[in-house]
């Protein structure tokens, strides 16, 4: 159960005894919440470097005297909430380094006749007592010089020997749960010269007659007195105010979660006769006064509040302060009335002319205030006010102009349900908080503003920098901010802190580029990087903004698409060039024609044969074909029927189908070969589809006529079968002389008739 730092956590493991095998390496041992009943002398003998030992919430009822003898380095020992019936000095005799000791919640009724702590010279905090703890005797705290904190559960303390706590020279903070009011004054007298802050809980304040400083000499040390969950009456309050003035060092009084049974009917004459109070700070939180609406206005207390500098009355149903007494708080600098029942109607009385003349800070948050223009008017009566908190009131829409104190520098309007800020906000401000409103924009001209808090609003962009040129800190946490640009960020010349956390950031390429390349942005952004998370794109949702890196495709989509288009165009262009150079199109179309021809019969039925010959020729040779050969053959006796593409192809029909159909409806195919025919790349290449059908049948339906001498080597390779025929079969050549031409026609007619 031990980690690398030798912290061993054995809590809540159902142990009945301290485990064996503890070594000198262990520094922290947690055995809390087990069932250990006894601690023996050998249990911790080897743990010589132990600094923290936690044994709370077990069932320990006995500890052998030398159980902690080897723990000279122990600094914290927690034996609270066990079943110890007594506290023995022998347990702590060797714990010279012990600083924190917790003994509360056990079964002992007292600490014995002497001090169990006399050897603990370094002790700084001590917790003791329980509901059974009933007696404190002289000598119980001998040997303790200084304590930062002393906590005593004396809820059933019935016996206190005078002087028992005097042996402790200095206590910074003492907390005592004390229900027996009869020994309260005795404890206070013993602590006048030692304790700085005394906190008493659950006491029913007695009607004390004797002085707290009886037979005590000045100077006193006690500066703060706190009552928690205590009970007062009008009579005990009156008497306590008189007696506490005798403690001239007392500067602060505090009452938290207390109950006052009364209506403020205090003995004002006796209080006034006792002189001025030295208390400078009074804090009252959640004071319950039944029938608080009948409470007196404290007339007669004017002389007691002159020296008061800080007053807090919170969560106590305050609805008004009488103007007559408000004018006598001449030294008050800080006034906190948060979470009360103050409303506009009574505020005119509470902040009347001449009241609170020195007030600098006023907190009226969580009240029932409305109409900001009235609040501004009332507070303008406070000549030195520079800090005003009126947050969590319901102001709604605010006017365009208000009159504020000229000294006002700090204004808190958060949670005030303001849909739009106007020029009612004073230009003198240095700090403005309008968080948790319904703001969708912010564009006020505030030339002196240094801090602006806009969290929990509806902003979609950072506010403009020009209206707030001196802004140092800006919070736009939990808005509808999607991103912010480099230009927006750098427009705030003096920005030191920007809190834009908990927004739904769109992690675009521009935003991420700015975040990754902006030097020192991590020092400016509050909560960076943990609280800056991408909301989109979906692939990176939930990832930290600083850790996201989008791909080139995601960041430069248009550029990538353009490049792909260019590449595709180049590939297509390359394919076109290659196809043109190597006649790929010709081969493809020939293959398609051949496949088409394959699905048709080998030869059309005799009744479908319409022509004696289909003539395949180059357009450049059309003059000879159409004017010489056609006239000679079609005017012969009997005449020959020739199929010419110009004349006999069916208009609108695909040329390949025209060619194949014409060949199938012809007895012969007559090729008029010339240089134009075989060397022109694409001239009449459609007619060459006839090759497949003719040569696939291996018959003599082809008649070759050479219009001019031509070498078989000059024929392109794609006419492979034509080259073969010219090398293996006889062909007719067109002669130059007229006599030979007559022979040529006879031979051609004979070939057509064959």
Brief overview, please?
This protein is an alpha/beta fold and 754 residues long.
Structure write-up:
Helices cover 23% and strands 18% of the residues. The chain has 754 residues and is α/β, with parallel strands linked by helices. Helix 7 (486-490) links the parallel strand 27 (473-475) and strand 28. It has 19 helices and 35 strands. Among the domains are: 1-168, Ribonuclease Inhibitor (Leucine-rich repeat, LRR (right-handed beta-alpha superhelix), Alpha-Beta Horseshoe); 505-549, no CATH class; 551-596; 612-740, Toll/interleukin-1 receptor homology (TIR) domain (Rossmann fold), CATH 3.40.50. The chain has a 21-stranded parallel β-sheet, with helices on one face. It has a five-stranded parallel β-sheet with strand order 32-31-33-34-35.
What attributes characterize this protein structure?
754 residues; alpha/beta; Leucine-rich repeat, LRR (right-handed beta-alpha superhelix); 21-stranded parallel sheet; five-stranded parallel sheet; 19 helices; 23% helix; 18% strand; LRR_dom_sf; TLR21 protein; Toll_tir_struct_dom_sf
What is the fold's blueprint, element by element?
Elements lengths: L6 E3 L18 E3 L7 E2 L12 E3 L7 E2 L12 E3 L21 E3 L22 E5 L5 E2 L9 E9 L4 E2 L9 E9 L5 H8 L3 E7 L22 E5 L2 E3 H11 L7 E5 L2 E3 L6 H6 L7 E5 L2 E2 L20 E5 L8 H4 L7 E3 L7 H7 L10 E3 L8 H8 L7 E3 L20 E3 L18 E3 L17 E3 L19 E3 L10 H5 L6 E3 L5 E2 L2 H9 L3 H4 L9 E3 L15 H4 L1 H25 L2 H15 L12 E7 L4 H13 L7 E2 L1 H4 L6 H10 L1 E8 L1 H5 L10 H7 L5 E5 L13 H9 L3 E2 L4 H16 L1
Parallel strand pairs: 1-2, 2-4, 3-5, 4-6, 6-7, 7-8, 8-10, 9-11, 10-12, 12-13, 13-14, 14-16, 15-17, 16-18, 17-19, 18-20, 20-21, 21-22, 22-23, 23-24, 24-25, 25-26, 26-27, 27-28, 29-30, 31-32, 31-33, 33-34, 34-35
């Amino acid at each position: 159960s031990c980690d690398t730092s030798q912290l061993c956590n054995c809590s809540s493991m159902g142990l009945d005894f301290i485990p064996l095998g503890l070594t000198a390496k262990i520094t922290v041992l947690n055995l809390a919440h087990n069932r250990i009943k006894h601690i023996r002398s050998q249990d911790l003998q080897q743990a010589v470097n132990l600094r923290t030992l936690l044994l709370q919430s077990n069932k320990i009822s006995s500890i052998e005297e030398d159980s902690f003898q080897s723990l000279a380095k122990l600094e914290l020992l927690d034996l609270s909430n066990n079943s110890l019936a007594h506290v023995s000095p022998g347990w702590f005799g060797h714990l010279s380094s012990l600083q924190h000791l917790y003994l509360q919640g056990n079964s002992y009724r007292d600490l014995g006749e002497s001090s169990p702590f006399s050897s603990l010279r370094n002790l700084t905090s001590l917790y003791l007592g329980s509901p059974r703890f009933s007696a404190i005797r002289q000598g119980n705290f001998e040997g303790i010089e200084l304590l930062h904190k002393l906590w005593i559960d004396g809820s059933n303390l019935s016996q206190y020997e005078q002087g028992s706590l005097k042996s402790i020279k200095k206590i910074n903070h003492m907390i005592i749960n004390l229900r027996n009011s009869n020994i309260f004054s005795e404890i206070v007298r013993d602590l006048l010269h030692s304790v700085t802050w005394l906190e008493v809980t659950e006491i029913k304040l007695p009607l004390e007659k004797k002085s707290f400083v009886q037979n005590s000499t000045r100077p006193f040390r006690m500066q703060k007195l706190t009552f928690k969950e205590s009970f007062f009456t009008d009579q005990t309050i009156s008497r306590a105010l008189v007696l506490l003035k005798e403690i001239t060092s007392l500067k602060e009084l505090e009452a938290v979660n207390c109950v006052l049974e009364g209506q403020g009917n205090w003995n004002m004459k006796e209080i006034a006769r006792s002189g001025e109070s030295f208390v400078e700070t009074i804090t009252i939180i959640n004071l319950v006064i039944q029938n608080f609406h009948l409470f007196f206005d404290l007339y007669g207390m004017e002389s007691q509040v002159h020296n008061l500098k800080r007053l807090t009355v919170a969560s106590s149903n305050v609805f008004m302060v009488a103007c007559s007494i408000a004018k006598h708080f001449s030294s008050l600098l800080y006034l906190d009335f948060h979470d009360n029942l103050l409303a506009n109607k009574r505020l005119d009385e509470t902040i009347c002319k001449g009241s609170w003349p020195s007030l600098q800070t006023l907190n009226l948050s969580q009240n029932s205030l409305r109409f900001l223009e009235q609040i501004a008017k009332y507070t303008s009566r406070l000549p030195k006010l520079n800090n005003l908190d009126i947050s969590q009131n319901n102001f709604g829409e605010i006017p365009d102009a208000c009159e504020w104190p000229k000294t006002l520098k700090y204004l808190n309007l958060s949670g005030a349900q303001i849909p739009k800020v106007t020029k009612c906000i004073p230009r003198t401000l240095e700090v403005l908080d309008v968080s948790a409103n319904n703001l969708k924009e912010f564009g006020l001209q505030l030339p002196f503003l240094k801090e602006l808090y806009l969290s929990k609003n509806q902003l979609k962009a950072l506010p403009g920098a020009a209206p707030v040129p001196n802004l140092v800190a800006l919070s736009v946490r939990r808005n509808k901010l999607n991103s912010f640009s480099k230009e927006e960020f750098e427009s705030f010349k003096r920005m030191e802190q920007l809190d834009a956390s908990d927004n739904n950031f769109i992690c675009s390429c521009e935003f991420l580029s700015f975040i990754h390349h902006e030097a020192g942005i991590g020092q400016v952004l509050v909560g960076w990087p943990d609280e800056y998370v991408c909301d989109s794109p979906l692939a990176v949702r939930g990832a930290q903004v600083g850790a996201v890196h989008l791909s080139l495709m995601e960041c430069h989509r248009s550029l990538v698409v353009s490049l792909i288009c260019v590449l595709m165009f180049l590939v297509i262009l390359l394919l076109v060039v290659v196809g043109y150079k190597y006649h790929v199109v010709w081969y493809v179309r020939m293959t398609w024609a051949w496949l088409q021809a394959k699905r048709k019969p080998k030869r059309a039925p005799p009744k479908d044969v319409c022509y004696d010959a289909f003539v395949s020729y180059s357009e450049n040779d059309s003059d000879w074909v159409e004017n010489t050969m056609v006239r000679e053959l079609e005017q012969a006796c009997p005449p020959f029927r020739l199929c010419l593409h110009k004349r006999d192809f069916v208009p609108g029909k695909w040329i390949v189908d025209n060619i194949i159909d014409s060949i199938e409806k012809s007895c012969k195919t007559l090729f008029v070969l010339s240089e134009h025919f075989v060397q022109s790349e694409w001239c009449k290449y459609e007619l060459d589809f006839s090759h497949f059908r003719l040569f696939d049948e291996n018959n003599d339906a082809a008649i070759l006529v050479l219009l001019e001498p031509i070498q078989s080597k000059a024929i392109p390779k794609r006419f492979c079968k034509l080259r073969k025929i010219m090398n293996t079969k006889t062909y007719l050549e067109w002669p130059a002389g007229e006599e030979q031409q007559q022979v040529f026609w006879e031979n051609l007619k004979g070939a057509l008739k064959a």
